[in-house]
Design a protein that fits this description.
Helices cover 32% and strands 26% of the residues. By secondary structure, the protein is an alpha+beta fold. It has a two-stranded parallel sheet with strand order 1-2. The longest helix is centred in the middle third of the chain and has 11 residues. The mean pLDDT is 78.
């Protein structure tokens, strides 16, 4: 393992985080990412960052694209 060999100064771990439309959906999503964060939180020289991912429905993405007249 790299940490035991001491061959690095700092490692950054980016964890994708799904942002659901409704707050209570968090109970169903992101559980693995949260577990990884907790396991790495107190490790020396490891930075953990979350990258939020907002799901956009197909209908919303069609509305977001400006149409030329």
């Amino acid at each position: 393992m790299l940490e035991q060999q001491g061959r690095f100064e700092t490692i950054t771990v980016a964890i994708p985080e799904y942002v659901p439309a409704k707050l209570w959906h968090n109970l169903l999503h992101n559980q693995t990412g949260q577990l990884i964060k907790v396991l790495l939180l107190f490790r020396k020289s490891i930075l953990v960052t979350s990258v939020p991912y907002h799901h956009q429905s197909r209908q919303e993405s069609i509305r977001a694209v400006p149409h030329s007249v």
